[in-house]
Design brief:
Number of helices: 1
InterPro entries: NanQ/TabA/YiaL, NanQ/TabA/YiaL_sf
Protein name: YhcH/YjgK/YiaL family protein
Shape: globular
Number of domains: 1
Mean pLDDT: 88
Strand content: over 45%
Strand order of the largest sheet: 1-10-6-12-3-2
CATH architecture: Sandwich
Pfam families: DUF386
Number of strands: 12
Length: 153
């Protein structure tokens, strides 16, 4: 897992060329002017999903990992929380879905709690079991807009 600000994109040159290209895309495009949906960046090697949603009740998703893709979770609006742990410490919940590239896991204690604000991202590798949690604040609806970039391993 790598967590940081998109503002430091120029300093991420040590990352693989594909990850760097994905991060560069996030920085160089006006994502707020784009509709929610899926966008190709480099064919099936790198693509992005823009997502907007409102949180009225707590979200506590299942832990998941991916084998074929690295996830880059980037927050455009709002705040997103991730719980992250080493997948070797998690018990699978069901079979790996090859079509969706996802393995879900049984709940357990996590190793790290990351809060991402606008302009921040987290790069999650295949060994990083992760789940999203969101809570309405003071009974108010929380609006979140994020990009999830998938980078083929």
């Amino acid at each position: 897992m790598i967590t940081g600000s998109i503002l430091w994109e120029r300093d991420y040159g040590y990352l693989t060329a594909r990850i760097h290209k994905a991060v560069r895309y996030l920085k160089d495009h006006n994502l707020n002017a784009m509709e929610d949906g899926t966008y190709e960046i480099d064919g099936e090697e790198i693509y992005m999903m823009l997502q907007s949603f409102c949180v009225e009740t707590p979200i506590d998703a299942a832990y998941e990992t991916h084998r074929k893709y690295i996830d880059i979770q980037y927050v455009l609006n709002g705040e997103l929380e991730l719980l992250i742990g080493d997948r070797s410490e998690f018990a699978p919940n069901g079979e790996y879905d090859t079509e969706q590239d996802v393995q879900f896991y049984e709940p357990r204690e996590y190793a790290a709690h990351v809060r991402l604000s606008e302009g921040e991202m987290s790069i999650l590798f295949p060994e990083d079991a992760h789940k999203m949690i969101c809570f309405p604040k003071n009974g108010e609806t929380v609006r979140i807009r994020k990009a999830v970039v998938k980078v083929r391993v």
